[in-house]
Every structure is written in structure tokens, then in C-alpha cells.
């Protein structure tokens, strides 16, 4: 297969010579460093599905208490989750986990993962779909520029940030 048949992102400016630079400071790498572990993604899924209590994260995501605690601590330290106090009647005060604005901004990432998984699921797997509550239509992951144009990989360019 020739390289011209495969859609890729156009590399421009100082990025045009792919062998002359390394992907240091890459935002994809920074994001994966925070949320790339399977346990983190599934805990985020549970947070988006309404889990707030530690025991609910353990039960619903299926990880040990130690793994769950470690990953939730990472999400707290990254500012993706925050703790809020709550108290059930007759119980001691506890803290619950809530998505921050930074965490809520990961929703399109989870929609994209879910859409990809639904499209490429192995035969025989149970299916679930994220849908728009008002009209029932499936949610889609879509790449758009700031002007609202839909963009595919062959229409995308990697360029240096102005001032660099």
C-alpha cells in the first residue's frame, strides 16, 4: 500500500520534516498520561454514570479497593474529580467524588471511545448506546474546527502554536 493512499494529518511549518522533531509537549501524550489507564477510563465512565461513593466505584468498575483508591487519587490530583462532603442520616460524615469542569470536558472522549467500541465490537457482545435524552438519537463523536466545519483526518494539519 502506498503512503498516498492512507489519510494522514498534514505536517506543516517546523513539523513538515517529521525526522527533525520529537513529539515533546504533545497534548495527546499529556492526556494519555492522565487518563490512559483502563482503570481510570472505567472510573470516569462510572462518574459520568452517576457514581459518587467509593464503594460504588469499586463495585461498578470491578477493580480492587487498592486500585480504585490509587486511580481516584490520581484523578483528584489532576483536578478531574473533586471531593465533596456528605452525610447520610445517622451516619458519619463522608466524602463523595464529583467531576469538575476539567473532568466534564472529557465527556467527548468517552463518547468517542463508546462510539468506536460500538462500531467495532466483537461479534456477540452486548451493545449499549449513548443517546440524546431529548430525541433518542445516538451520540456521535465528531471532529469540528472552531468555525463548525466537520473535519476528517485528511483535512487536518499539525502546525506550530503561534509564538513558538
Q: Would you write up a description of this structure?
A:
One of its GO terms (molecular function) is DNA binding. InterPro entries: HTH_HxlR, WH-like_DNA-bd_sf, WH_DNA-bd_sf. It is a single chain. This protein is of the alpha+beta class and about 160 residues long. The radius of gyration is 20 Å and the shape is globular. It has 6 helices and 4 strands. Helix 2 crosses helix 3. Strand 2 (about 80-85) and strand 3 (about 95-100) form a beta hairpin.
Features:
single chain; 164 residues; alpha+beta; Arc Repressor Mutant, subunit A; two-stranded parallel ribbon; two-stranded antiparallel ribbon; 6 helices; 4 strands; 35% helix; globular; DNA-binding; DNA binding; WH-like_DNA-bd_sf; WH_DNA-bd_sf
Summarize the entry for a quick read.
This is Transcriptional regulator, HxlR family. The chain has 164 residues and is α+β, with helices and mostly antiparallel strands. The chain is built from six helices and four strands; from the N terminus they run E-H-H-H-H-E-E-H-H-E.
Give me the count of strands. 4
Number of helices: 6
What name does the CATH topology carry?
Arc Repressor Mutant, subunit A
**Terminal Cα span:** 36 Å
Order of helices and strands: EHHHHEEHHE
Uncertain spans: none
Structural class: alpha+beta
Topology diagram in text:
Blueprint: E1 10-11, H1 27-35, H2 38-48, H3 54-61, H4 65-77, E2 81-86, E3 94-99, H5 101-104, H6 107-119, E4 157-158
Parallel strand pairs: 1-4
Antiparallel strand pairs: 2-3
Helix pairs in contact: 2-3
Amino acid at each position: 500500500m502506498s503512503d498516498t493512499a492512507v489519510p494522514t494529518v498534514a505536517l506543516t511549518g517546523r513539523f513538515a520534516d517529521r525526522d527533525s522533531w520529537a513529539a515533546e509537549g504533545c497534548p495527546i501524550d499529556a492526556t494519555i498520561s492522565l487518563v490512559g489507564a483502563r482503570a481510570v477510563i472505567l472510573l470516569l465512565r462510572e462518574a459520568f454514570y452517576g457514581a459518587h461513593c467509593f464503594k460504588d466505584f469499586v463495585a461498578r468498575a470491578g477493580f480492587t479497593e487498592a486500585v480504585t483508591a490509587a486511580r481516584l487519587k490520581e484523578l483528584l490530583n489532576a483536578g478531574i474529580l473533586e471531593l465533596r462532603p456528605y452525610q447520610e442520616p445517622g451516619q458519619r460524615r463522608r466524602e463523595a467524588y464529583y467531576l469538575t469542569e476539567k473532568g466534564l470536558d472529557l465527556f467527548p472522549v468517552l463518547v468517542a471511545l463508546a462510539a468506536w467500541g460500538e462500531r467495532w465490537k466483537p461479534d456477540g457482545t452486548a451493545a449499549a448506546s449513548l443517546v440524546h435524552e431529548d430525541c433518542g438519537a445516538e451520540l456521535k463523536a465528531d471532529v469540528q474546527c472552531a468555525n463548525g466545519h466537520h473535519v476528517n483526518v485528511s483535512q487536518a494539519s499539525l502546525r506550530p502554536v503561534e509564538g513558538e
